[in-house]
Specification:
Elements (H helix, E strand, L loop, with lengths): L2 H6 L3 E2 L2 E2 L12 H11 L4 H22 L1
Antiparallel strand pairs: 1-2
Helix pairs in contact: 2-3
């Protein structure tokens, strides 16, 4: 299996396509990191940050659609 094969692959959880993730480096204020770590629970604070950003994006897209 090559990298090209992996790039073309559709990853699934059960029958549903699984969202792809990309690792990045991001500098955040210490207070933000502490906040998300305290709220994260079992899923981890990075997953919580990702979900929060996804919800903000969806809200913004919804607002643009209503205009």
């Amino acid at each position: 299996m090559t990298q090209a094969d992996l790039d073309r692959a559709t990853f699934r959880v059960g029958l549903e396509p699984a969202p792809r993730r990309q690792q990045i480096t991001l500098s955040l204020d210490t207070g933000l990191i502490d906040y998300f770590k305290s709220k994260a629970g079992e899923h981890g604070y990075q997953a919580l940050i990702s979900e929060t950003l996804r919800q903000a994006k969806e809200r913004e897209i919804g607002e643009e659609t209503r205009r």
